[in-house]
Write a structure and sequence with these properties.
Layout: E1 5-10, H1 17-32, E2 36-40, H2 46-56, H3 65-89, E3 93-97, H4 100-110, H5 115-126, E4 133-138, H6 141-151, H7 164-180, E5 185-189, H8 194-208
Parallel strand pairs: 1-3, 1-4, 2-3, 4-5
Helix pairs in contact: 1-8, 2-3, 3-4, 3-5, 4-5, 4-7
The structure holds adenosine-5'-diphosphate and magnesium ion.
Amino acid sequence: MLTGKLVTFEGPDGAGKTSALNAIVAKLQPQLGDRLVVTREPGGNQISEAIRKIILDRHNTAMDDRTEALLYAAARRQHIVQTIQPALQNDQLVLCDRYIDSSVAYQGAGRGIGEQAVYDMNQFATAGLTADLTLYFDVDAAVGLNRIQQHRQNEINRLDVEALSFHNRVQAAYLRLLADHPDRIKRVDASQPLDQVVTQALEIMASQLPAYVASKGGEDQ
Ligand SMILES: Nc1ncnc2c1ncn2[C@@H]1O[C@H](COP(=O)(O)OP(=O)(O)O)[C@@H](O)[C@H]1O
Ligand SMILES: [Mg+2]
């Protein structure tokens, strides 16, 4: 039985997913302790991190689009088996930086393989394991790219350097996903200052996952 909960963090590059995730972990760790599992895709274990290096390496300019999509799905499969599923069986709250929506948006729409094709291919990898809650960090692709260029120069990867048109296709696909899955995907206004982004994300988590996250007005605070 998967009694835990999976929360995924999605959105364009530079939306602030990783920054918000770190702040949320700092907030929740004291209450949740070992019940909190923090991980990322592609990665989270030795095999998936090795695949991540291949995918994001800026020297791998010859990589075929479908190869890229398959590598993401392969890393995801290993991540689910080794990390996510055991944590969910153990009643833990899993916070994951990117998941299947990223593949649909980046490979499906960004690369143009087709959103449905990438989704279907990922069903083989996930065997249907869906996030309980997805926080969509909504910011214009151009704003996100600008943040990265200003502050994160040292870790720009193979996908970050794609043209703005690529990132606009990614963003448009995310907005379609948001519209199509209103129960699972909740929008966070990521154009706000980071502390407000974090507050909004925590409020959503508290309302959707009250067994794990206390609301601000709750007695724990
Ligand atoms: N709400 C925000 N406002 C302004 N800058 C931000 C905000 N959130 C994150 N940043 C900055 O933007 C850059 C990208 O943030 P990051 O968390 O790495 O984004 P992501 O993980 O979504 O790609 C970082 O330099 C970060 O400090
Ligand atoms: Mg990040």
